[in-house]
Amino acid sequence: MDLWTFIIIVVALGICGEICKKYLDKREVRSATEEDEVYAELEALTERVQILEEIVTDDRHRLKQDISALERG
Description:
Elements: H1 3-57, H2 60-72
């Protein structure tokens, strides 16, 4: 292997290494963003379940009033 072949291989490996590093960094950022979205959706669903629990455990009179208020609108 001559000197120029060695230099080309080293440069090619350096470029491939940088490309892989940038790809992995972007993938990690994307994963963190997706994780934030999942937590936000989980919080919204938890709030909805709490509201449904309140409706189910509430007495009938108040439940009728709430439904009537929703129908009126």
